[in-house]
Amino acid sequence: MSRTPFRPAGLVAGLAALALGLSACGGSADQGAPAQDQQDPEQQQLPVVASTDAWGSVARAIGGNFVRVEPIIDSPGQDPHGYEATPRDATTIGDGRLILRNGGGYDDFMTGLIDASGNAAPVIDAVQVSGLGDAEDAEGAAAGHEHGHDEAGHAHGGSNEHVWYSPATVEKVGQALARELGTLDPANAQYYSTNAQALSGGIAQLTSKATDIGRQHPGARVVVTEPVPEYLLDAAGVQNVTPQEFSSAVEEGTDPPAAVVAQTLGLFGAQPPVDALVLNGQTQSAATDQVRDAAEQAGVPVVEMSETLPDGVTDYMQWMNTNLDALDGALTR
After folding, report:
1. CATH architecture group of domain 8-203
2. pTM to 2 decimals?
3. Which candidate among 11, 94, 204, 252 keeps its CA 20 to 30 Å from the CA of 323?
């Protein structure tokens, strides 16, 4: 899937006419009123806007029946890196009582939407909440889709904006959601807190499952087409041996240098070959087709991990557990 840079200036100009009306929808004086004060059952639900359905699923886990979550991106066919916002999206943002974005440059379209709407609703930025590396450095690096790397040239977490693949970050975001929702809806604050505790319990089980995979497959090595799942691989103790230039080029939507492609393909024919290919199924290019073909020809299992929720999946824990099961199955071949 191609990466098209977002042009926030054009969005703000195109949506300026909407801003006045939208400001009446969000950031009003009754923002802290309990949800139960509304008469219409649908209006009892606090509108929460998430940049992607991945974060929307976390918001639903905390808010339950007391929130109505509206993800801006809710389809595997939409690419957050190059998403072009619409006036309808601005209306959605304007109606939100709480806004959840990934941050780190991943969903920059949210900045233009929030500015155009005039909504003063609280915003939770997952990268800032994560504490992974320096938030400002992550913001600048991710805006150019570059990542920190170790001496071997492999990407590491400090400036990787795909923080929803970090179980610890999801737990922190869940706690932040509970606090903000409890402020907006004090009557149900304990409910949100209880749900955040339940999410923390699920995250603990997820982390334990990942750790067990690492113990069962010590020294496991994988190739990734993009750095999307790196935090989950780190949690599982699985080494990413992909040349940095390859995964960065794929994420940028550019062709990796021929020598880098050859280096990557060689990992499947080495002795021993890598244990699995972890592929972002939402991004396809000549380079990713080549590595997939090389993996299949070498008998190396292919695992797909997406940026947004797969079709038919609405629950974050189900999604990540499925990813870990697929990884474990590939490494157990």
Report:
1. 3-Layer(aba) Sandwich (3.40)
2. 0.81
3. 252
